[in-house]
Amino acid sequence: MEQEKIGEGLVRIGAMTRAQAEDVLRRQRGGDDRLFGEIACELGFVDDEAIRSYLNIKIGCKYQGDCHFRNIKEMNASNHLLKERYCEQWPEKCAIYQQKVLGKPVTITLWPTGKLAV
After folding, report:
1. Could you tell me if residue 90 is left (phi over 0), alpha (psi between -120 and 50 degrees) or otherwise beta?
2. How do the domains of the chain map onto residue ranges?
3. I need a labelling partner for 95 at 20 to 30 A (CA). Which of 1, 39, 40, 80 fits?
């Protein structure tokens, strides 16, 4: 799977418009050798916080390899949304992550929201 480029990601999460991303790319093709985020910030399309937020989204959860929730084979749409929110965007807010950080055992019925699945 090809890695998402930062401009595509910022458009996907709504931090920039497609036209703004294309403006930055046009400048890079025209010889501006700065990073995409540097140009976008200078032009006022995004702020430094949006760039940092996006980069954290890409990192995802450090426990994803052994997380029972993240590794469900066939997810319904609701669980897929939870996976995107907690596993990729805000892992530190995930109840499973919080338990693992504390070194506490995690039951396979614990969901990222803190609720227990039945």
Report:
1. beta
2. 6-59, 62-118
3. 1
